[in-house]
Automatic annotation (TrEMBL):
Transmembrane segments: none annotated. Keywords: ATP-binding, Cytoplasm, Helicase, Hydrolase, Nucleotide-binding, RNA-binding, Stress response. One of its GO terms (biological process) is ribosomal large subunit assembly. This is ATP-dependent RNA helicase DeaD. The gene is deaD. PROSITE patterns: DEAD_ATP_HELICASE, HELICASE_ATP_BIND_1, HELICASE_CTER, Q_MOTIF. Residues 491-505 have a biased composition (Basic and acidic residues). Gene3D superfamilies: 3.30.70.330, P-loop containing nucleotide triphosphate hydrolases. Residues 432-446 have a biased composition (Low complexity). Residues 37-208 form the Helicase ATP-binding domain. Pfam families: DbpA, DEAD, DeaD_dimer, Helicase_C.
Length: 606
C-alpha cells in the first residue's frame, strides 16, 4: 500500500479516533504515521528513526489511544520525553485526539511544577502519563506512581534524552514496568547507547526509518551571514528591521546569553522574552502562551528550552550563536516550516566558523545561501514603506481624519498643501522611524505591540531616545549635536582624546565595574555611548578604580536611559550605574577645593 493511497481509515484506527482526526482537519497520514500505526495497532514493538516535525507524535499517540481501556483508571500508557515543553505538547496532542473518547484522562508530570496537582490527579486515576524522566523517578521513589499496569511505553526523542544525561533514569523506569508490554522508541539519530536500549528492551521491533533527500524541511529557506562576534547584535537589529517576520526564535548558546540578548532587544522596543533552563516553569508556560497569542514576537532560547516548542506563528529561526554540532542545527530550524508551512532560517557564522558551516551543509545535504547584510538604504526604504502603508491604512478609515481636516485647511492657507504634507511626514517619521516593524501585520494594525513589556523579566519598553545601533562601518548618519540625541551613534573612528566644553554641566556617576574585572576606558565609553545614544564628545573623565569606576556624564540624564544603563554589561558585569553622591562613593578624580568649615555661631540669648 503506497503512502499516496493510504488514509487514516485504511490504517485500522477506531471510528472515534477517525472522527477526532476529521474534526481537526487531518486528511492523509504522513510517511511515518502510515508505516508506524499498523504495527503498533497489532501490538508489535517499533523502532522509529525520523527527524523532528515529521508527525511522529500522532504516529504513536493514535495507536496508544486505540489500545486504552476506558473502564479502568490505572496508568496504561507511559510516554517519556526529554523536556517539559515536549511533555506538555504530547499530552495536549493526546487530549485532542481523544476528543471522542469520553472519560479519557492524561496527566503530564514534569519538574518545575508543584507536586500537589500531580498527586491529586494520580489519586483520582489517569489512563496515560506523559513525563520527563527525572519527575517520573521522583514519583516512583515517593510511591505515588506505580507502573505495574502499564501496557504501552513510548520513548520520544531518545537521542535527546541521552544527550541530556537521562539514559540511566530511562533504564530505571523501564525496569519498573511489566516485562510484557509494548515499547515504541523514536529517535532522530541512533547513537550506540540508544541502539543498545533498543536491543535490550524491544522485542523483534518493526524498524521504521523516514529518509529524506534533505535532513531539513524543504519548506524552510536557509541563509547564513558571515559576521564577526562584536557585530552580531548590530546585524540582528538590521535583520529585524528588514525581515517581515511574524514570530521568531533566536538561539543563543548559554543561559546568560539569552538573558543579555533579550534585555538588549527589549531596550530596542521589541516584545521579547528569554527561555532557558533557569526560567521557572510557570513563567515558561506563560511565555509560550504569549508567543502563541501574539503577546510576544521574539523568544531568545537555548537548545534545551526550545525542545518540543511547536508554535504556528514562528516564521523565522535565527541562530545568533552557531550550534556546536550539525544535529543541533537541524533541531533548531525544525521549529519553523512545520506541517508544510514555509519558514526562514538564518545562521550567523563567525569567520573562524566556516568549517562548521561546511559540516552543516553536508549533514543537511542542502546548500545554505549567503545573505547580504541590509544596508542603511535598505533600512530607510523599509521604514518608508511601513510609513506609506500606515498612511494608506488611515486613508481607508476616513472617520479618523475628520478631526484634523480643519487644521490642515488652516495650514494650507499658509503654505502649499504638498509642503504641509511633507512637513507632517517629517514630523511623524522623526518620532517613529526607529520603531520596530509590526511583525506579520501592517504597521498600523497594532501600534502598541512593540512597546509591550517582556514576559517575566520586567524589562521596560525601549526608551524613546534610544534607536537601534547599526554596524559602525556602514552607518553614515551625521553625529548628534546634543547629549542623549534622538539619533543613532555616528561611525566610530580610532579613539582620540577629545576635551569636552568646560561650559557643559556634568554629573559624577559610579559604575560597578573596574580594574579587577578587566575594564578599560574604551569599553566603558563605547558601551555608554552606544546604549544611551550619547556621543562620546559629551562623556567626561573616566576614573577606573579596583572594583568600580567613576565617570562624568552630562547633567539631566533622562530616567528611562538611566534605568536602561543599569542593565548594560561591560567586562562580564552589569554597570549598575548610580549617582556617586547617592552611593557614598569616592569623590571625583578632580575634586573641588574644600572650603574651611566655620564653627556654627551660637544664637544670641534672649
Amino acid at each position: 500500500m503506497t503512502t499516496e493511497s493510504t488514509t487514516f481509515a485504511t490504517l485500522g484506527l477506531p471510528a472515534a479516533l477517525l472522527e477526532a482526526l476529521s474534526a481537526v482537519g487531518y486528511e492523509t497520514p504522513s510517511p511515518i504515521q502510515a508505516q508506524t500505526i499498523p504495527p503498533l495497532l497489532e501490538g508489535r514493538d517499533v523502532l522509529g528513526q525520523a527527524q523532528t516535525g515529521t508527525g511522529k507524535t500522532a504516529a504513536f499517540a493514535l495507536p496508544l489511544l486505540a489500545r486504552i481501556d476506558l473502564s479502568t483508571r490505572f496508568p496504561q500508557a507511559l510516554v517519556l520525553t526529554p523536556t517539559r515543553e515536549l511533555a506538555i505538547q504530547v499530552a495536549e496532542a493526546l487530549q485532542k485526539y481523544a476528543a471522542r473518547l469520553p472519560g479519557f484522562h492524561v496527566l503530564p508530570i514534569y519538574g518545575g511544577q508543584s507536586y500537589g496537582p500531580q498527586l491529586s490527579a494520580l489519586r483520582r486515576g489517569v489512563h496515560a502519563i506523559v513525563g520527563t524522566p527525572g519527575r517520573v523517578i521522583d514519583h516512583l521513589e515517593r510511591g505515588s506512581l506505580k507502573l505495574d499496569t502499564v501496557r504501552t511505553m513510548v520513548l520520544d526523542e531518545a537521542d535527546e534524552m541521552l544527550r541530556m544525561g537521562f539514559i540511566e533514569d530511562v533504564e530505571k523506569i523501564l525496569q519498573k514496568t511489566p516485562a510484557e508490554k509494548q515499547v515504541a522508541l523514536f529517535s532522530a539519530t541512533m547513537p550506540s547507547q540508544v541502539r543498545r536500549i533498543a536491543q535490550t528492551y524491544l522485542r523483534e521491533p518493526a524498524e521504521v526509518t523516514i529518509a529524506a533527500k534533505t535532513r531539513t524541511a524543504t519548506t524552510v529557506r536557509q541563509r547564513c551571514l558571515v559576521v564577526p562576534p562584536p557585530a552580531k547584535l548590530d546585524a540582528l537589529t538590521r535583520i529585524l528591521e528588514i525581515e517581515p517576520f511574524d514570530a521568531m526564535i533566536v538561539f543563543a548558546r548559554t543561559k546568560v546569553a539569552t538573558e543579555e540578548l533579550a534585555d538588549k532587544l527589549a531596550a530596542r522596543g521589541y516584545a521579547v522574552a528569554a527561555l532557558n533552563g533557569d526560567v521557572p516553569q510557570q513563567q515558561r508556560e506563560r511565555t509560550v502562551n504569549k508567543l502563541k497569542d501574539g503577546g510576544l514576537d521574539i523568544v531568545v532560547a537555548t537548545d534545551v528550552a526550545a525542545r518540543g516548542l511547536d508554535v504556528e506563528r514562528i516564521s523565522h529561526v535565527l541562530n545568533y550563536d552557531a550550534p556546536t554540532d550539525p544535529e543541533s542545527y537541524v533541531h533548531r530550524i525544525g521549529r519553523t516550516g512545520r506541517a508544510g508551512r514555509s519558514g526562514e532560517a538564518i545562521l550567523f557564522i563567525a569567520p573562524r566558523e566556516r568549517n562548521l558551516l561546511a559540516m552543516i551543509e553536508r549533514t543537511t545535504r542542502k546548500h545554505i545561501e549567503v545573505m547580504r547584510l541590509p544596508t542603511d538604504a535598505d533600512v530607510d526604504a523599509q521604514r518608508s514603506a511601513r510609513f506609506r502603508q500606515q498612511v494608506l491604512d488611515i486613508l481607508q478609515h476616513d472617520g479618523k481624519l475628520a478631526a484634523v481636516r480643519a487644521l490642515i485647511a488652516d495650514l494650507e492657507a499658509q503654505a502649499p498643501l504638498a509642503d504641509v504634507a511633507a512637513a507632517l511626514a517629517v514630523l511623524a517619521q522623526s518620532s517613529s522611524a526607529a520603531a520596530p516593524p509590526a511583525r506579520g501585520r501592517s504597521a498600523s494594525a497594532d501600534t502598541t505591540s512593540t512597546q509591550a513589556p517582556a514576559e517575566g523579566g520586567g524589562r521596560p519598553p525601549r526608551p524613546a531616545s534610544l534607536k537601534p545601533v547599526f554596524l559602525r562601518e556602514q552607518d553614515t548618519s551625521p553625529p548628534p549635536q546634543t547629549p542623549f540625541a534622538d539619533a543613532a551613534p555616528p561611525p566610530r573612528e580610532k579613539p582620540k582624546r577629545r576635551e569636552r566644553e568646560n561650559s557643559e554641566p556634568m554629573e559624577l556617576f559610579r559604575i560597578e565595574v573596574g580594574h579587577d574585572h578587566g575594564a578599560q576606558p574604551k569599553h566603558i565609553v563605547g558601551a555608554i555611548a552606544n546604549e544611551a545614544g550619547l556621543d562620546s564628545h559629551h562623556i567626561g573623565r573616566v576614573d577606573i578604580r579596583g572594583d568600580h569606576s567613576l565617570i562624568e556624564l552630562p547633567e539631566g540624564m533622562p530616567k528611562n536611559i538611566f534605568q536602561h544603563l543599569r542593565k548594560v554589561w561591560v567586562a562580564g558585569r552589569r554597570l549598575e550605574i548610580s549617582r556617586a553622591d547617592g552611593r557614598g562613593a569616592a569623590a571625583p578624580s578632580r575634586p573641588a577645593p574644600r572650603k574651611p568649615q566655620k564653627k556654627p555661631r551660637k544664637p544670641p540669648r534672649r
